[in-house]
Specification:
The protein is α/β, with parallel strands linked by helices. Helices cover about 35% and strands about 20% of the residues.
Amino acid sequence: MSEIIYRGMNQAQLDADYNNTAAVPDVQRHISGWAERSNALRPTLDGVWDMAYGDKPRQRVDFIRCGKPGRPTFLYIHGGYWQRNDKEPLHCLAPGLLAHGVNFATLEYTLAPTATMDEIVAEVGACADYLVGRLGELGADPNRLVVGGHSAGGHLTATLREKAGIIGLLPISGLFDLEPIQLTYLNTALRMDVPTALRNSPIRHLAGSHPAIIAVGGAELGELQRQSRELHAAYQAKGLKSELIVLPGEDHFSILEQLASPDGALTHAALKLLGEK
C-alpha cells in the first residue's frame, strides 16, 4: 500500500489533485484560443506596453486604457504554477472590464526554476508598488486599484494582502497554502523547502488583509476548491472581509471567460471590489 503523505492521499493522488492540465481534456483549446483572440485584439487597444518595473527581462507590465480619464484599474496576474506563461496571451481578458470603464493591466515575473518562490513574490510586490506610483501619470484614478490573478496568479494576488495602494483582491482558482505544493511534482522546479512554503502561504499570514472575493470553479479539482474554501474561512475567522463565489460548471480554465465577458461573474466581482457596483 502506498504511503499516505497529505490529507489521506498518497503521492500519486496528491499529484493528480493538483494537475489541472490533465484534469481538463480541452485545455489546449482554451490556451490557443486566448492567444488567437489576444493577437487579434491587441492592435485595437490603447496600451502602454512593457513598462519595466525592474531590471530583469520578465519584469514588465502592460497598461490598457479604458478610454476615460480618472477611472479605476484592475491588475491581472497570470498563472502557470509559477513556471510558465506570459502576459500577452491574456490580453483577451481585458474587454470585460474595459466595457465598464476600468483600465486593465497585466504583468510578468521571472519564472521558476530561474527564480525562487521568495523572489517571485518579491517581484510581484515590486510591480504593484511601481504601478501604484504610476497610476496618476497613466491617467487613471490613483486611489482605486484592485488586483486579481488566476491559479499561481491567485496565490500571488493573495501575497499582496497588505500592499499599500490596493483596495481589494480577486484571487481566482488560487493556491494559498503551499505545504501540499511542496510535496508534489511541482516542487521539482519550485525547489521549496518547508520554511519557504510556509513563509509564502498567504493563508498563514492574514493580519491586515485587504477585502477579498475568492473565486473557484465548481468543476475544479478537489484540492483547488478546498484551498479557496479554507482561505475564505480563515478570513472569516479573523474578522476580515471576504466573499467566496463558486461558479457552477466552470473548470480551471473555462472560469477565465467569466472575467473576459462584460457580463461575467468575475467581471462583476472586480467591479464590486472597485466600488462600481
